[in-house]
Amino acid sequence: MSEFEKAVTGLGEECGVFGAYDMDGHDVAASIYYGLFALQHRGQESCGIAVTDTAGKRKVLSRKGLGHVNDVFDEKVLSELKGNLGVGHVRYSTAGGTRVENAQPLVINYVKGTLAIAHNGNLVNAIELRKELEYTGAIFQTTIDSEVIAYHIARERLEAATAEEAVRLAMKKIKGAYALVVSSPRKMIGARDPFGLKPLCIGKRENTYFLASESCAIAAVDAEFVRDVLPGEIVTITKDGIASDMSMAMPAEKQARCIFEYIYFARTDSTIDGVNVYHSRIIAGKALAESYPVEADLVVGVPDSGLVAAKGYSEQSGIPYGMAFHKNSYVGRTFIKPKQSDRESSVKIKLNVIPEVVKGKRIVMVDDSIVRGTTCANIIKMLKKAGATEVHVRISSPPFLHPCYFGTDVPSNEQLIAHSHTPEQIRDMIGADSLGYMEIEKLKNMVGDLHFCDACFTGNYPMEVPGEDISQAFE
Hints:
Elements: H1 3-9, E1 16-22, H2 29-38, E2 46-52, E3 60-66, H3 69-72, H4 75-80, E4 85-91, E5 106-110, E6 113-123, H5 126-134, H6 146-157, H7 163-171, E7 176-184, E8 187-192, E9 201-205, E10 208-212, H8 215-220, E11 224-228, E12 234-238, E13 241-245, E14 257-258, H9 260-265, E15 271-272, E16 275-276, H10 277-291, E17 298-301, H11 306-317, E18 325-327, H12 343-350, E19 351-353, H13 355-358, E20 362-367, H14 374-385, E21 390-395, H15 417-420, H16 423-430, E22 434-437, H17 444-447, E23 452-453, H18 455-458
Parallel strand pairs: 14-23, 17-20, 20-21, 21-22
Antiparallel strand pairs: 1-4, 1-10, 2-3, 2-4, 5-6, 6-7, 7-8, 8-12, 9-10, 9-11, 12-13, 15-16, 18-19
Pathway: Purine metabolism; IMP biosynthesis via de novo pathway; N(1)-(5-phospho-D-ribosyl)glycinamide from 5-phospho-alpha-D-ribose 1-diphosphate: step 1/2
Cofactor: [4Fe-4S] cluster; Mg(2+)
Keywords: 4Fe-4S, Glutamine amidotransferase, Glycosyltransferase, Iron, Iron-sulfur, Magnesium, Metal-binding, Purine biosynthesis, Transferase
């Protein structure tokens, strides 16, 4: 997500990882490119691809840069990335700043060979692990916790019999949220944290295997979805097929998938852990209509993640669904960075209200969250200026009350409007005629039997978290 995006939405996205291994020896860089393209919504600050030829000298070739996937890669660059095994990454910075050396994948050359690592997530013990490594002589090139993971895998590999065993031993030390895709000279390894906080899945197309953050990226390369990597599972893909190690798994009741994948992060056409994202957002909208009915003429959603929940609200309430906004999809990372005072104009650049749709009507406006409240207030002002007589806001998540330590850029408490204001005060501040948040007890309806993390709403973290903001600790 660009600085502009962050300023407009107030919320940061996550990272996306993608891996490919062609057993027939064909180059995979183009497939990784398309996979990353499908995951672009998960990170827009930087991206990278690293590939190796399993039959040749096994040298790793990589290209990384700031910006979108099509800013960094073109046909010429992709044609130079020769190799049938590779990993890719799109990044939104949750720990460490926006600089090219923080782009992934990380490529580590060490005594046992070369590893390329792509990581989505955040470690809660990254600071102590990094200090421990520094005191034993490690020199860090980046300010991201992903490098801490890479170091630990490389160190464990010195004694471990295999690369996957090194990953397992490293997982015993790292704590937090992570989905990893690792390429060693002849293997592709995927690992998911024992809580399942970050998603990871497996795909297959003929003799090529894929690992991806979301199933939409598997579909983008015309591959067949095989299954999700399970929480705590390590999968190793070689020419002999897939091997699974579940020794790091924990009981299902302790698992804690990020509920915000279903509310906001994931693409609508993805399915994560057996739950379709589109379906979960429809359910969220229906729950809002049950909890907060209102007399209105039209239900509209704020693009993009509010659109499906708005459809659900419409279906449950019987109020017609309409498209009230035009979204400008071409606001890229080079757009001038807005100051706090410029947020209103920034919203207008990104979203435009269609006056013919809303004029003279009572509107139900559905969005995924209210973080600072600035954006929501500006959109309501735009709707009323375009002629809406009433604007009733419905939010498909509960109020944000606590920071996230697991890779979601939820701001500190002081910046969360719900932390210091009641819903009625927020309603008044944003200029809405009524305001309704998703009820916490109804979140489970979105994901069925899955156990999930809702700490940003409840403060009930699935593991011990640091008492400080670790996001800029390495700066």
